[in-house]
């Protein structure tokens, strides 16, 4: 039996088509091979930042000092009693009473002389200005002051220089009446030296007096008086 070829089964007529398809496939694969790039994967390792703020703060604790325990009480002293074998001499106190026949010597006590200044206002016995001796004791203070004032008026002389310059005022005078009645320690204080000099002259002319007494003894007596200089 003779085989017959099917004209449709002839494959050579497709050979050109298959060749073209194969060529296209090779070109496509070659193009993909050229275009294909391999990339090396890189890993960016970021540095790890450690935040110091997250550190936990450790509180500072202060050690509480406990007071030391009190010292133990001292041991009681042991008192040892030692027998004293020494003999104690008995003291004999003699009587101080004197016999009637015994003579007691009298000791004379010398009274100290009063050496102090007694102000005129509080002294017991004021100094006596001559002429006040017969005045009662209660009026002697006033008599003394009146006599002093009369003495000032009698001996008063206004300094000529002070009159020409129109100087006037009050001079305060202080002096001491001694234990013998004499005048000493005259001090003056005023607006002008000429007025002070005149006041000193007037007081220095005072007579000797009977000294003032305190408890019956003569004492020094300070006395103060103002002298007024006034132009008319």
The overall average pLDDT, rounded, is 77
Known CATH architecture of the domain at 137-229:
2-Layer Sandwich
Count helical runs.
Answer: 4
Taking the alpha carbons of the first and last residues, their distance comes to: 203 Å
Shape: rod-shaped
User: How is the biggest beta sheet arranged?
Assistant: 3 strands, antiparallel
Number of strands: 5
User: Helix content range of the residues, please?
Assistant: 10-25%
Bin the strand percentage.
Answer: 5-15%
String of helices and strands? HHHEEHEEE
Q: Rg to the nearest angstrom?
A: 71 Å
Describe this structure in words.
With 232 residues, the chain is α+β, with helices and mostly antiparallel strands. It has a domain at 137-229: Fusion Protein Consisting Of Minor Coat Protein, Glycine Rich Linker, Tola, And A His Tag, Chain: A, Domain 2, CATH 3.30.1150. Helices cover 24% and strands 12% of the residues. The chain is built from 4 helices and 5 strands, in the order αααββαβββ. The strands form 2 sheets. A 3-stranded antiparallel β-sheet has the order 2-1-5, with helices on one face. A two-stranded antiparallel ribbon has the order 3-4.
């Amino acid at each position: 039996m003779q085989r017959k070829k099917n004209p449709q089964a002839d494959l050579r007529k497709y050979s050109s088509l298959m060749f073209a398809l194969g060529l296209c496939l090779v070109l496509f694969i070659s193009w993909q091979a050229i275009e294909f790039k391999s990339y090396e994967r890189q890993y960016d390792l970021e540095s790890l930042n450690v935040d110091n703020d997250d550190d936990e703060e450790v509180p500072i604790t202060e050690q509480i000092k406990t007071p030391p325990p009190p010292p133990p009480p001292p041991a009681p002293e042991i008192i040892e009693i030692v027998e004293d074998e020494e003999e104690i001499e008995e003291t004999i106190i003699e009587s101080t009473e004197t016999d009637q026949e015994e003579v007691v010597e009298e000791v004379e006590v010398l009274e100290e002389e009063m050496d102090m200044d007694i102000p005129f206002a509080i002294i017991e016995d004021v100094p006596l200005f001559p002429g006040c001796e017969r005045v009662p004791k209660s009026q002697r203070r006033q008599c003394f002051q009146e006599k002093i004032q009369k003495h000032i008026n009698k001996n008063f002389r206004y300094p000529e220089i002070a009159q020409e310059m129109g100087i006037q005022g009050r001079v305060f005078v202080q002096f001491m009446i001694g234990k013998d009645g004499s005048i000493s320690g005259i001090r003056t204080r005023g607006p002008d030296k000429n007025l002070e000099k005149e006041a000193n002259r007037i007081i220095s002319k005072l007579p000797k007096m009977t000294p003032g007494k305190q408890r019956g003894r003569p004492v020094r007596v300070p006395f103060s008086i103002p002298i007024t200089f006034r132009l008319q």
